[in-house]
Amino acid sequence: MDRSCLCILGFSSKLNTRHTLAKYFFCTVTSKIASKFSEEFTNLCSKGHIKEAFERFKSEIFSDPRLFSNLIKSCIPQKSLSLGKQLHSLIITSGCSSDKFVSNHLLNMYSKIGELQTALTLFDHMPIRNIMSCNILINGYVQSGDLESAQKVFDEMPERNVATWNAMVASLIQFEFNEQGLGLFSEMHELNFLPDEFTLGSVLRGCAGLRSLHAGRQVHAYVMKCGLEFNLVVGSSLSHMYMKSGSLEEGEKVIKSMPIRNVVAWNTLIAGKAQNGYSEGVLDQYNMMKMAGFRPDKITFVSVISSCSELATLGQGQQIHAEAIKAGASLVVAVISSLISMYSKCGCLEDSIKAFLECEQEDLVLWSAMITAYGFHGRGDEAIKLFERMERQELEANDVTFLSLLYACSHCGLKEKGMEFFDLMLNKYGLKPKLEHYTCVVDLLGRSGCLEEAEAMIRSMPIKADAIIWKTLLSACKIHKNADMAKRVADEVIRLYPQESAPYVLLSNIHASAKRWQDVSEVRKAMRDRKIKKEPGISWLEVKNQVYQFCIGDKSHPKSMVIDLYLKELTSEMKLRGYVPDTAAVLHDMDNEEKEYNLTHHSEKLAIAFGLMNTPSGVPIRIMKNLRVCSDCHVAIKYISEIKNREIIVRDASRFHHFKNGRCSCGDYW
User: Fold this and answer.
1) Residues 640/666, Cβ–Cβ less than 8 Å
2) Cβ–Cβ < 8 Å for 412, 378
3) H or E stretch covering 359
4) Using an 8 Å Cβ cutoff, are 571 and 557 in contact?
5) Mean pLDDT estimate for the chain
6) What's the pLDDT tens digit per position in 115-134?
7) What is the rounded CA–CA span in Å between residue 534 and residue 505?
8) Read out DSSP for 323-347?
9) Of 30, 74, 420, 629, whose CA is between 20 and 30 Å from 13?
10) Average pLDDT over residues 277-291
11) Backbone angles phi, psi at 196, to 5 degrees
């Protein structure tokens, strides 16, 4: 090759290098500009600044109409239908309305904002539809509560993907058609669609809804086969399934085996313990969650506050309330509802009212919770007034609202009003009563002395009676000393639950109050023969954030001798004011002195004595008891409240009693 050729080649090489560098520089600059544009545009859309995003990047949007999708998505969180429609008009003007990508985003926007009819019109006019279009429509129907139409779209689809199956399986389970949901999952598997974490999450919720450990364990085996057991969504759903089905141990095992936990996993564990009655364990897990560096959310607070309700630990409940305020969760409806219940069950009705009034939302759950709180504290008139306000504000009452109302009426002797509400529920609201509603009505009739009417209702109602409704009537037989009916009703309870102590104890009480000691002995013998033990009376109270527990005749407390002496002196003072021990409440055939000693050492009296000795003067004493307060203790506490000038609040198995100045809030109706 000659020198001239080499020169030409060399020169050409330099030109190529310069051209490449220029091209590289141009591409780099263009890429940076595009990246900056993309970042700014996306950022504005994510913050909901739709108009600003459109004005600033108008030319880019019209040159690439698919960018309209970002603007459309921004309308959904704001539920901005007017902006959505304006964007729709611009899309038509730009000539890209036939683009299925943009059309699907419009369809999704209308569906999620709740404009299903507009979405349907758009769907019918779309020139090109795909699987995504149908999936969006299925979700839109489900969101509006129309499962039948969602199923129709699903059945008519010529082609489906995993998202389609997920949408339909999740929908069936959401509407509590759990068996159909699991059946559809089996069909999906048979057609060789590979389920993902969302499919399995829905299926496990279906197993939980059925409380089916067998089906849940089968799905668990499939999860392990797919290698998804450590997936956060699947792991939490597995744990929830086990705990909802009553196997807390297996549920805990799943969570503890997860190499990484998130807030959902912690919430699943905490909620599982709460649902299975391990309230103290809930508080332990809550503290561990915080120690692990996770911030509790509204779901956490609902479970933890509910556990404080069950334990009636006011100090801890107040502390968690403060933490919910700090976390910004105190104005969430579910959290407020839990707070209303917690303060009510801890004996602080005024704090329940305060929590209710602080919420600006008019939510049915909150109103029902407040009606229940009023009823629990014997303030039936306020419960009724609140319901009447609810009706004036056109809040649609549901079965829970009426259950709360019936409960309030039954605990305040408002028989006529309660029966009115039962008729209203049936005839005006068209609600079908559940067993709990019938139980409240039986309680209402029984307490007011209409025992035959109450029994007739149980035997004629369209739902199979359980032990609780029969025990409710049995308690009414005790109040009205109807031994003949009591024997008949006790037999019904024993037939359903032969090992439960309550019917034997109530029947024994009825015989004892009539001094029929032979009948008492026969009931006691039946209990011994069947190895049935009476549930002991336990009372507890919280002093300086520590819970103290007492049993009848308890000698285990370090200060039992001091408490015993204090009670002896208090009883003497009560007698001077007219107190006469109700020895008929003692079931054993013993002399009066022994009976009096037995009465003096009931668990609630021990707890009250301890509270009086260890709390400042003027501070209310709050006692919780696992059984109903006996008639003697009820009278005695009225005297104590007057002598010591203290408010004594007792929560028994049935309701709250506020003792003040020698009176009780129940008006001796309990």
Assistant:
1) no
2) yes
3) none
4) no
5) 86
6) 999 999 999 988 888 999 99
7) 7
8) HHHHTT-TTSHHHHHHHHHHHHHTT
9) 30
10) 92
11) -110, -170
Q: What are the residues whose beta carbons fall under 8 Å from the beta carbon of 172, sequence distance 6 or more?
A: 147, 178, 180, 181, 184, 206
Q: Kindly tell me if the per-residue pLDDT of 48 is higher than 80.
A: no
pLDDT in tens, 491-500: 898 888 888 8
Residue 446: HSE in the Cβ half-sphere, 13 Å Cα cutoff? 30
Containing 95, the helix (H) or strand (E) segment is none
Short-list 96, 111, 14, 85, CA closest to 62: 96
Measured CA to CA, the distance from residue 405 to residue 382 in angstroms comes to 10
Cβ neighbours around 222 below 10 Å, total: 15
Tell me how far apart the alpha carbons of residues 375 and 367 are, in angstroms, rounded to a whole number.
12
| Overall average pLDDT of the 427-443 stretch | 94
Beta bridge partner(s), residue 121: none
| Main-chain dihedrals φ then ψ at residue 126, nearest 5 degrees | -70, 125
More confident residue, 85 or 3: 85
DSSP states of 481-501: T-HHHHHHHHHHHHHH-TT-S
| Residues in the chain, overall count | 670
Tokens of 144: 């509006």
- Are 573 and 643 spatial neighbours (Cβ–Cβ below 8 Å)? yes
Q: 669 near 476, Cβ under 8 Å?
A: no
Taking the C-alpha atoms of residue 385 and residue 382, their distance in angstroms, rounded to an integer, is 5
532-545 per-position pLDDT tens digit: 887 888 999 988 88
Q: Are 506 and 496 in contact (CB under 8 A)?
A: no
Is 375 within 8 Å of 408 (Cβ atoms)?
Answer: yes
